User: What shape does this take?
Amino acid sequence: MRASGESVPVSPFAFVAQLLQLAVALAAAPLLVGWVNKWRAWLQNKTAPSLLQPYYVLHKLLVKEAVVAENASPLFRVAPYVVFACMALACAIVPALSTDLPLAPAADAIALVGLFALARVFISLAAMDVGTAFGTMGARREMLIGFLAEPALLMSLFCASLISNSTSLAAIVTKMAHSHFQLYPSLAFAGVAFTIVSLAENARVPVDNPATHLELTMVHEAMILEYSGRHLALIEWAASLKLFAYSCIGLALFFPYGVADASAPLAMLVALPALAAKLAVGGLLLALIETISAKMRIFRVPEFLATAFVLAVIGLLVHGLLEA
Assistant: This one.
């Protein structure tokens, strides 16, 4: 028998699954953005850009020289790398393909929210570092949105964690995907709240419009106006990784079916196409939401995110009254 304090050895397959998941995230995140943009253009009766357009943009930026302001501090130069590392780590620890991952113990709901918050702090500080009006304005708006979105995100994650009695995403997926099918009314409220938070956190309509540079509307774009070259490429890549991470978190919480179990390595052959199919449907729904929604004023965003928080709290109450 194994002692209680002895760690469980990680199988060689787990390292393969971990590397595969990280590689899929790095390679497929820009493709997900291209898929959303293509459907958004089609739904608006516009000429759709190429599905590979995000890759072309990243390649163009990576080969260009980065221009940095004279009064920029080292924080301005380091921020893109920190933000990219945080988003890559978030994609690596979310059980999108398998629950048997070496980084699975780090896939805690609270730690994951802290990882997103760390990236937000660095990009906001870098936006204010140069001292431009646009950068400071975007940083203030970003911190306001994050301050309101993080509690709602935590409440949404807690709805799922109460069902599995754990804040680990791997435990949540194992509980919900590899057990008898059950209906959880609390997850319906949590799912709507998580969708609202995802729109706000990823700078999507109706909170922000990633395709505009208008002063009164932009939030994320205002913070990165001073970046260029490889720095801008890392930030854009990190933004696509963030959308990929949030999509995988939503699939892990509310549609975990198809994720490979630790005891079934061959299930990875099914997990990869299942993830691609779920992301394709999710990208279509995101484009549909952005098409039928109008950009709201920045002063209405607190009400929008407060609605998400209330829905998540209602989900917790429903779980305590009906499911506990």
The longest helix spans residues 12-43. Residues 50 and 56 are 9 Å apart (CA to CA).
